[in-house]
Amino acid sequence: MTRTRVGVLLCDDLHEELQTEWSSYRALFETLLADEQGDIEVSGFRVHDDEWPDSPASADAWLITGSRASVHESPDWVVELQAFVRRAEALGQPLIGVCFGHQLIQAALGGRTQRSSLGWHLGAYPVVCETAFAGRQPGETLSLLAVHQDQVVEPAPGFERIATSEQCPWYAMRRGRTLTLQGHPEFDREFFQALMGRVRGKAGDAAVDQALAALPADDHTAAVRATMRDWLRG
Fold first, then answer.
1. What is the rounded CA–CA span in Å between residue 198 and residue 15?
2. How far is CA 58 from CA 4, 42, 45, 88, 89, in A?
3. What CA–CA distance (Å, rounded) separates 23 from 44?
4. Closest by alpha carbon to 86, among 40, 55, 119?
5. Would strands 172-175 and 160-164 be described as parallel, antiparallel, or unpaired?
6. Against a cut of 0.85, is the pTM above it?
7. On the chain, which terminus has fewer CB atoms closer than 10 Å, C or N?
8. Cα atoms in the 13 Å half-sphere on the side-chain side of 43
9. CA Rg, the chain, in Å?
10. What is the pLDDT of residues 20-46, one digit of tens each?
């Protein structure tokens, strides 16, 4: 069996309250990357705490996670991670960014991020595909759980837009072997509901209650996870 070594560049830790049910942020991505093929080997690096791989060649493909940090505030580790992205992309390695990772990759390759004027974006807000993706066709909705304030406002050159939203125009994009998306396919409904307990104090009761009430009966998390695994396999 040919195995794919995927390096998960962790940009945050779970809050202590969430760790009572979920052991780590890395564990969420290990679940996302696991399937019946069993050919993906996961290594995790807590880059926000200065744990770094030796080089992009340390893995076959890379996945960058979400974070409470802001790309445009540029702490030292964010600047270093952007440089790592540029090296990995130059090598032609499969690369995926989720939420903060989506924003960071876009910024690293020439795009721009900022805080949304609309405030918090929570839950499965309306998103429409512009091209076929994860079993969805152009014009069809794409439903993923999301939690963010920042977003991409100007994509890096050459990226094709996959999905868009009125409140988040650059929701998902791809270029070459790089895929970035604003939603959180590593979240399931149970985790999202628990996370809302942490977000409530920041986003306010009204925003959280609206997001929870609007959760759809089903979403496309499983299909997006499968697409991500295939993308990382190259």
1. 8
2. 11, 11, 11, 10, 14
3. 14
4. 55
5. antiparallel
6. yes
7. N
8. 18
9. 16
10. 677 789 999 999 999 999 999 999 999
